[in-house]
Amino acid sequence: MAVIIKTPEELAIMREAGRINAMALQAMREAVRPGISTKELDRIAADVLHKHNAKAAFLGYPPGSPFPFPATVTASINDELVHGIPSEDRILQEGDIISLDCGAIFKGFVGDSAFTMGVGTISDEAQRLLEVTEAALYHGIDLARAGAETSDISRAVQAYVEERGYSVVREYTGHGVGRSMHEDPQVPNWWPSPRHRARGWRSVRLEPGITFALEPMVNAGRPTTRVLDDHWTVVTVDGSLCAHFEHTIAITPEGPPLILTAL
């Protein structure tokens, strides 16, 4: 698949898709508290998307799958890294951390972003994990400039996280975003060995109009994960806490990228 360069007109639509997605995330952030269900958070996000004439990118994804995703957002708690399915039975408790990820489709283009936050008062350990993961995201964003390589971002995110005593998940990566939720380029949060690159890994030189989601996924323990029997929820194998932050960005002619999924 070739990297798709977006026109200024397409970028303007993506910016609106991203803004709508940011509003859905903000509405959920304001609602997070002990006692609320993840399904109620899902309804809150769905209402925001509907109000702004956007569709849920995650609902029914991927088309044709025997196990399409059944909700508007993914809601992942504590040792759940990504893709948690919202439920009336998943009630947030004081001290939890929750990752909320949402995708909005507006006029045919996707905005995709996520954050992790604490529920009530959380431990110092959990707070530091959130701070490091979010800082790794912005560290990577700052390097996403015309002329740089995607591998530059990958190595920088990995180094930032590992120097602070955490591990980077290998199985899931950042990705191009546009008319599809998953396009080229693939943007890992680590950079693999030559053996892995021989299997198809490639670094892409960034140029204006390239758009992608950068999303560090960080574990407090080992980097290994597994998928639960619901076919979606990804958890850490060792039960350690994990965090996930994401923005969709656009490479600009000069200077830092445009964060498309900012408010």
Description:
By secondary structure, this protein is α+β, with helices and mostly antiparallel strands. The chain has a single domain, classed as Alpha-Beta Complex (Creatine Amidinohydrolase), CATH 3.90.230. Helix content is 29%, strand content 24%. The strands form four sheets. It has a five-stranded antiparallel β-sheet with strand order 8-7-9-14-15. Strands 1, 2, 4 and 5 form a four-stranded antiparallel β-sheet that branches. Strand 4 and strand 5 form a beta hairpin.
List its salient traits:
263 residues, alpha+beta, Creatine Amidinohydrolase, five-stranded antiparallel beta sheet, four-stranded antiparallel beta sheet, 5 helices, 15 strands, 24% strand
What is the CATH-assigned architecture? Alpha-Beta Complex
Number of strands: 15
Lateral strand order in the biggest sheet:
8-7-9-14-15
Helix content: 25-40%
CATH fold node name: Creatine Amidinohydrolase
- Please outline the major beta sheet: 5 strands, antiparallel
Percent range for β-strand residues? 15-25%
Oligomeric state of this protein? single chain
Unreliable segments of 5+ consecutive residues: none
| Overall residue-averaged pLDDT value | 96
SS summary, helix count: 5
